[in-house]
Write a structure and sequence with these properties.
Two copies of one chain form a homodimer. Chain A is an alpha/beta fold. Chain A contains 17 helices and twelve strands. Chain A has a five-stranded mixed β-sheet with strand order 1-12-11-7-10, sandwiched between helices. In chain A, strands 3-2-4-5-6 form a five-stranded parallel β-sheet, with helices on both faces. In chain A, strand 5, helix 8 and strand 6 form a beta-alpha-beta unit. Chain A is globular, with a radius of gyration of 24 Å.
């Protein structure tokens, strides 16, 4: 049960040359800078502002979720999670990582009789129709996830789904196919849950959407499909403890945040690429992308100064993106840092057979494990970047399991609030999305919102 | 059958204010600059360097592919495309767009008896195992796609698959489950095809991987699953004709390339976001990401000067990424341009029922179509960006069909070679990926490559 590690030599001057950060700074100004961020975060945590820190310890929540999962899980053939952004990315990352990419294609036996699991994120009528063609609503549990209880896409889908359920079930039975995940006290979903006796799990008020993967938002879909919640949360708790250390070189989240912040603000490396080498982790990179972008991309800093700052996270996938983004990473502007993520022990081994010994372009592959080829490609990519003076770092998970994911989720969440302190911005708000919401409400005629004047996107002529 | 349109008013000063490009430049210096790029591209095309231009006219290829598809398609339950990068991204974009995201979950009847279609891209043993658990190799056709015939990931998977086939079939039968897509004359796959009588389609030598979606690389999986090749290629041909016009304001690919190039080089907008509003088009954005990144991210320009330039394309998805990237797009650095892509007429309509008339947070949604909500969100997002002085443009496809995709593929490919001319780089090469390949060969002990010395990624201690 070796813990998650982060190797960061390929960001430093000894390996990278003049493009690297001086390694003595790790015990000098960077350590100092990090100590300030660590203190700020620990203060905010003690003040109860950073609810995600407490989630691994919420034994009662874990028990409730498990009970709900055990009772519901055996009744339904299919579970559909209806949610968008932070209400789905974490759960989806967990599902892809631990259930694999073809879970829903398996038979009941293949799935150990756990339900099929779908995510309905977008207000895309094609997706809703495609999904409804594949599930039987009478044998499906719909988990409607919205902390506020008013997310337009999710509420619209909820209404459509309720309509479809009503066509095949009577009113009481409809309620039996729904479970909400929402605020414990306020919002429309909570009100409906109370009025109609619909079960509803709570998202703690101090836990924002993008920090909610270890709350009931992420735990319910995981539990329903048999994921070991205790291992997931134990991994997260272990990472929390590691990150209580204010010493930079012992704090993995601190190193991730401090090194990326320094590379960005001192060297102009504003694009932060997360590149796992496992197909099952593509969704995890998308989870990171939201966390990093929405938390750090801010117009105004804590002091009220207009800064318009924030790194751009890019979700990549190795080795696939060696055939897509790598050319740009190797030769383009020096505005990027790549964070690799590898699994030390693959869950499956597949040996490449020794076919075609007479063909040099094939024979060198024979006898290697496929997973070893993947790791060789990653090492070669990191080394090629290094030789070009382009920085990278590497996370290693011992294996792709719930515990390791718990560690990684918690590391990234803690790194994000450290980064907020380093950049001097509030990592918990997202004021920039409000204008679009208001315009949407106005365009749809919601009470209290006036219809905006919209210019045509072609300005009356600039169109081809 | 209205053609694809591009509205670009939201990039211009009249809509955007000082952050916009002056609209008179469209008939001034930008028109002039584009004319130079257009001439360079037309010259290269006439010189036979840009083979992708000719693909829509290759009637013989289309006929051959269709015949192969018609003869093979009825024999197999499942087709697996084995390829990576340009050997899969285009075919995958087509499949997701036209077959939907749950094609493989449908019954034979749901699929009109066309085969299930999987893509095996990565050298990930977990993915290979997951897939093999779900398909019966005796009823599966494996399409091995590698232009060079030596792509390590693809060749390794080919050898594993051949090994698995050999366990259940005799030698001759094994060959009957394979079809190659590769160079017409050279490479290992061509040699094996000739020696063993394995059918093999050709990728024309002047068509690079990332420009190959309209060659047999993209056409075969499409044809096998019933996609209308004639419509796809007709759409592409129509776009080619539109782009023969050297006048900027009449050339959609010219406008896309010229405006992004100007926004980048004059205004520092180096991040180009493609954001389709349809789940089925997420893969199309990944196809664009490879095309734009690998073609334009170059260390050295045509004149031999070291430039280390190139925009960073980001694949996004609306409305999902309104809950992920939008905060950064609205408030972060002014280094981005967003290109929206919308479908004018959704393939399905789903009305949101008028439930909960007494709850203001829900009632405004009732009576709207789900697709209209999605479009309102997109319009609101474009308008919110505009009000913040952040540029965008909008592609509109009449509907999500083969013809429209053909137009879009061709537009983007032509825009890419225009952009190559504008940036002054060769859009057809990818020299930056060679070092990683050589290191990989060396590490695996391939003949003629020496094993490289690799530093540890932790430099012997920089790890936590």
């Amino acid at each position: 049960m070796s813990p998650l590690t982060l190797a960061y030599g390929n960001l430093l001057a000894p390996a990278l040359g003049p493009q690297g950060l001086a390694s003595e700074r790790l015990s000098g100004d960077l350590a100092q800078r990090f100590r300030g961020a660590h203190t700020a975060v620990e203060d905010a945590r003690r003040a109860g502002e950073l609810g995600f820190f407490d989630l691994p310890e919420e034994v009662e929540t874990r028990r409730t979720v498990q009970e709900v999962a055990d009772s519901f899980g055996q009744w339904f053939e299919t579970m559909v999670v209806v949610g968008i952004g932070g209400s789905s990315l974490g759960a989806r990352a967990l599902a892809d990582a631990l259930l694999g990419l073809h879970w829903n294609l398996g038979s009941d036996e293949d799935r150990d009789h756990y339900p099929r699991l779908f995510f309905l994120e977008n207000a895309d009528p094609g997706s809703l129709r495609d999904l409804m063609d594949r599930v039987d609503p009478r044998r499906t549990l719909f988990n409607i996830v919205s902390k506020s209880g008013s997310t337009a896409e999710t509420m619209a889908q909820f209404m459509v789904i309720e309509g479809l359920l009503s066509e095949v079930l009577d009113d009481e039975a409809v309620a039996g196919h729904l479970i909400f995940t929402t605020d414990p006290d306020s919002g429309v979903l909570r009100r409906l849950a109370n009025e109609r006796g619909i079960p509803a799990l709570a998202v703690p008020p101090a836990v924002g959407g993008r920090f909610s993967v270890l709350s009931s938002v992420g735990l319910l879909p995981a539990a329903v499909t048999g994921v070991d919640l205790a291992a997931l949360l134990d991994g997260a708790a272990a990472m929390t403890r590691r990150c209580e250390d204010p010493e930079l070189i012992r704090n993995p989240a601190g190193l991730f945040a401090t090194l990326l912040h320094a590379a960005h603000t001192e060297q102009g490396r504003s694009i932060h690429v997360l590149m796992p080498y496992a197909d099952r982790l593509r969704a995890l990179a998308l989870w990171f992308q939201q966390l990093w972008a929405e938390s750090l991309g801010k117009a105004v800093n804590r002091a009220g100064t207009r800064v318009e700052s924030g790194p751009t996270p890019v979700a990549a996938l190795g080795a696939v993106d060696q055939h897509s983004l790598l050319q740009l990473l190797m030769e383009g502007p020096r505005d990027k840092v790549v964070a690799f993520l590898r699994i030390r022990t693959p869950s499956h081994e597949v040996e490449i057979p020794r076919l075609y010994p007479e063909i040099a372009a094939l024979s060198y592959l024979g006898g290697h494990e496929l997973g070893a080829l993947l790791e060789v490609e990653r090492r070669a990519t990191a080394e090629a970047l290094r030789r070009e003076g382009r920085p990278s770092m590497t996370f290693e998970l011992e294996r792709l399991d719930a515990r390791g994911l718990g560690e990684f989720f918690m590391l990234m969440q803690i790194a994000t609030v450290y980064a907020g302190a380093l950049y001097g911005v509030d990592p918990l708000d997202q004021p920039g999305v409000e204008l679009g919401k208001e315009l949407t409400y106005g365009l749809l005629g919601r009470e209290g919102y006036s219809a905006p004047e919209l210019r045509d996107e072609d300005l009356g002529g600039y169109s081809v």
